[in-house]
């Protein structure tokens, strides 16, 4: 009993040190909330912290009283309903998009008079206690409706650096802890498979482009070949595109009967994410066809010419692009 009287006596003094500008007299709460990225300091912030600390200490005192009662009355503890406990189904890991709000929920059943706090594990930064926000990073907020079992932590404009482990702590003795992983992701685009593809002449080029983590499906996805938009109704023929929009948008480009001029850089450009590309080499027998960067298109080249070109290439050791240029100029 003497110990608890001591604790209650020391609290006003403690409050005073936290409320004052004296940074050196640190308590555990100040340690957790006064440091870390974005802890701006300043007098406004100091006041905000002081107010929340008062409230939290009152909570703690009530809690200590309650715990003290429980300890001194073991028979009473036995008849108490069990709890608190976490509802793990409603307190799961979170994947959020960069720049969007993220909401980490912690559902605690039978919480009684206990308080829920949120801590960032990386730097053991105390973010919220009950309905109060402790951090100076204005993007973090405690979200709780009185009477509800949900104690959420919201992050406005989530950043990749916010990713990591967060702790939902209930003020039992010892504290109950539940860890939630926040994963903040950026949209990205990929073409499945290797960054370079080798296709036999006459075979199909089949490319699949996947757009990950866009807030909404892209309004369009464009395919380009050597930086020129591929048009599906061109004379080239044999080109088809199939796009399936959704949480993960997939577009498939199929180019039938690949020819030497199909060699080059194929890229996929979604309206709302960065592009992705793949280099396609058309194998002409044993050797990959030379890379094409020229302006003329494959659609103008007839199969007969190609056959002639192949013959000339073998006999005279001149390259196909050179021959085609000669053909165009005459
Ligand atoms: C949450 O994420 C962590 C770390 O990635 C993992 O160990 C844990 O199993 C995940 N929990 C659930 C419920 O998926
Ligand atoms: C919460 O504390 C108050 C007094 O502060 C008490 O009257 C009430 O019974 C307590 N409730 C629970 C569920 O412990
Ligand atoms: C192209 O590739 C996709 C994904 O690998 C596959 O589902 C599809 O059937 C292929 N299309 C053709 C015509 O081979
Ligand atoms: C292929 O084209 C894309 C988009 O135009 C470009 O970003 C990429 O650098 C190109 N790749 C190569 C190897 O030239």
TrEMBL record:
Ranges of Low complexity composition bias in the record: 25-34
Assigned keywords, A-Z: Signal
Transmembrane intervals: none
Pfam family, one: ig
GO CC annotation: neuron projection membrane
Signal peptide: 1-15
InterPro entries, alphabetized: Ig-like_dom, Ig-like_dom_sf, Ig-like_fold, Ig_sub, Ig_sub2, Ig_V-set, Immunoglobulin_dom, Zig-8
All copies of domain Ig-like, residue ranges: 74-181, 187-279
Stored Gene3D superfamilies: Immunoglobulins
Record protein name field: Ig-like domain-containing protein
Region (Disordered): 25-45
GO BP: synapse organization
């Amino acid at each position: 009993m003497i110990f608890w009287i001591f604790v209650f006596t020391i609290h006003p003094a403690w409050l005073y040190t936290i409320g004052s500008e004296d940074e050196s007299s640190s308590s555990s709460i100040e340690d957790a909330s006064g440091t870390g990225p974005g802890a701006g300091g300043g007098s406004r912030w100091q006041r905000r912290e002081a107010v929340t600390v008062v409230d939290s200490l009152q909570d703690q005192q009530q809690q200590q009283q309650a715990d003290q009662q429980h300890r001194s009355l073991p028979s009473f503890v036995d008849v108490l309903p069990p709890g608190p406990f976490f509802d793990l189904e409603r307190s799961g890991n979170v994947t959020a998009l960069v720049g969007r709000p993220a909401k980490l929920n912690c559902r605690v059943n039978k919480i009684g008079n206990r308080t829920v706090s949120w801590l960032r594990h990386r730097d053991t930064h105390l973010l919220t206690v009950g309905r109060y926000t402790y951090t100076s990073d204005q993007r973090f907020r405690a979200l709780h409706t009185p009477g509800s079992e949900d104690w959420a932590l919201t992050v406005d404009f989530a950043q990749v650096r916010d990713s990591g482990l967060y702790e939902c702590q209930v003020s039992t003795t010892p504290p109950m802890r539940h860890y939630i992983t926040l994963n903040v992701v950026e949209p990205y685009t990929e073409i499945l498979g290797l960054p370079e593809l080798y296709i036999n002449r006459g075979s199909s080029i089949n490319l699949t482009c996947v757009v990950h983590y866009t807030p909404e499906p892209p309004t369009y996805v464009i395919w380009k070949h050597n930086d020129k938009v591929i048009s599906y109704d061109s004379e080239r023929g044999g080109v088809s595109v199939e796009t399936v929009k959704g949480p993960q948008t997939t577009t498939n480009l199929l180019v039938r009967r690949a020819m030497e001029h199909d060699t080059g850089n194929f890229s996929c450009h979604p309206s709302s994410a960065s592009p992705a590309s793949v280099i396609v080499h058309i194998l002409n027998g044993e050797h990959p066809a030379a890379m094409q960067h020229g302006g003329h298109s494959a659609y103008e080249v007839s199969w007969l010419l190609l056959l002639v070109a192949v013959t000339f290439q073998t006999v005279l050791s001149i390259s196909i692009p050179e021959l085609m240029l000669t053909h165009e100029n005459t």
